Amino acid sequence: MFLEFKRQVTEALENALASLGYETDDMGLEPSQHADIASKVAFRLAAQAKSNPKELAEKIVAAIELPEGSLIGNIKTVGPYINIEAGRNYVDDTVNRILEEKEAFGGNFCEGKILLEHTSANPNGPLHVGHIRNSIIGDTLVRILKKAGYEVETQYYVNDMGRQIAIVSWALSLFDFDTSRKPDHAIADVYIKANAILNEEPEKVAEIDKRMQLVESGDEETIKSFDEAVSLAVTGIKQTLLRMNVSHDSFPHESSYIRSGAVSRIVEEIKATGRTEDDNGALVVDLSDYGFEKTLVIQRSDGTSLYTTRDLAYHEWKGERADRLIDVLGADHKLISGQLKATLNAIGKKEPEIVIFEFVSLPEGSMSTRRGKFISADDLLEQIEESAYAEVQKRRPEMEDEFKKDVASMVGIGAVRYDIVKVSPEKSTVFNWEEALDFEKQGAPFIQYSHARACNILKKAEEEGKWDPAGKIDPSLLTEDTEVDLIKKMAAFDSIIDICARDLKPHTIAIYSRELADAFNQFYRFVPVVSAEEDDIRASRLALVNCARIVLANALDTLGIGAPESM
């Protein structure tokens, strides 16, 4: 709704400027503490108009003409700024549109196809805490972009032929595979054992190198051993992702770009640029004119390709199938992702937009799958859900066990997702599960509880015969400050989605959701709802509660978090 209000503000200012003989592409619109939106266009045009910015702002406001039914209310100048308030139509129309559009409210204003890759952890063990920020940021971005109206395909790029996979396939030939364990955990067991042997007997590294050469040359038996190892790990990884409410549409394997000839083709395309040179038998790319002192290796001295080479072929393939490409990568990929973009640019291919995130850790410290020093995402989720169950048991001891488990799962997963995504991707963070689960802090449980509270209010009112969900209401009766504040906060949902979709920073929707829950609780705290004496006011306030329920559910869904009806 805010986007429509902003569009009308832009149009009103453009018309006013045209009537004065001025023109600009930028109205200088920005948030303001003193209005719903402010414009500093008078600053921008002062030189062109040869006028004092304050006087020009007054002339612009005097020239504004609002059509009937406009969402714009009061307009005034504060020095050179033009402050614009939303009018009553904006408030009333927001309530009506939420009740009409329900789960569709706040989206569908963009178009185009996006391929978004996230997680893509090596299939040599389970996901650990260090991986899940990638998964949660990536999945939340997918949900934001879909809400905005894009067609989004989510991909997990499977490394099925690198050194780590060669070690796993070798390990499976040496050790028994524990079928009683979750497959990705059992893979980690043999991988850790194999690395211990390689550390003790370095000469055995030659066996790993041989396997890598065989798989790239197309040796069927070696390929089969790699595929079996990867399949076991990916099966377990998928289970963990689904538990976190994360899913992928496809799992392209890097080996497919070797077998299709795409890797060989892209190497030739890069050679044709004249950028390649020999470095002790290896083929490297000179990207110094792009600001990279370090060359990019695209072929080893033994003729085998690298992960980077296959990644280039993968991105060339993706670029032919979508309007935008987005990769979610850890901070350790800053250099290589920059080189990848530069190389694609040099051969005239579509470049991905890169979302770089800093790492999440636990207070216990750093993790390494190779050394066997990690806390798996499964272990963390188990611990979180057990703690959430204990909290639900304490608060709702009278409820059946199935209810407690369902709520504990929603609250636990919600706590993990929210606490990780609430921090801007470029900032590192330590995940503290006890704080994340604290119902008194304004995290996921606080937002979920606000939704459950709205559901409970409506259920109680309906049972008492005080609310008819299908009844007509009059939004103009909602005039209290906390009512209007809540409505305006809900109206901003589409603008928040728009900002997140453009900036690719999902923490903005997390902050908004918390503020929305707070606005709802402030409204309910200060304004009588079910106990309101006048029937028409009670009906309108209950409709407002229903609006809050709808938008809270939409926000939680965009965050990939469950919206419980009772807690």
Description:
The chain is an alpha/beta fold and 567 residues long. It is built from 21 helices and 13 strands. The strands form 4 sheets. A 4-stranded antiparallel sheet has the order 1-2-4-3. A 4-stranded parallel sheet has the order 6-5-10-11, sandwiched between helices. It has a 3-stranded antiparallel sheet with strand order 7-8-9. β10 (324-330), α13 (334-346) and β11 (353-357) form a beta-alpha-beta unit. The relative contact order is 0.11. Residues 366-372 have low confidence and may be disordered.
Give short descriptive properties of this protein.
55% helix, flat, alpha/beta, Isoleucyl-tRNA Synthetase, Domain 1, Arginine--tRNA ligase, EC 6.1.1.19, four-stranded antiparallel beta sheet, single chain, 21 helices, Gyrase A, domain 2, 567 residues
Draw up the topology in text.
Blueprint: H1 2-20, E1 29-30, E2 37-39, H2 41-49, H3 53-63, E3 72-78, E4 81-86, H4 88-101, E5 113-117, H5 129-148, E6 151-155, H6 163-174, H7 183-200, H8 205-217, H9 220-243, H10 255-259, H11 262-271, E7 276-279, E8 282-285, E9 296-299, H12 307-319, E10 324-330, H13 334-346, E11 353-357, E12 360-361, H14 377-395, H15 401-421, E13 429-430, H16 433-436, H17 444-463, H18 481-491, H19 493-503, H20 507-526, H21 535-558
Parallel strand pairs: 5-6, 5-10, 10-11, 12-13
Antiparallel strand pairs: 1-2, 2-4, 3-4, 7-8, 8-9
Helix pairs in contact: 1-3, 2-3, 4-18, 5-19, 6-7, 6-8, 6-9, 7-9, 8-9, 11-12, 12-13, 14-15, 17-20, 17-21, 18-20, 18-21, 19-20, 20-21
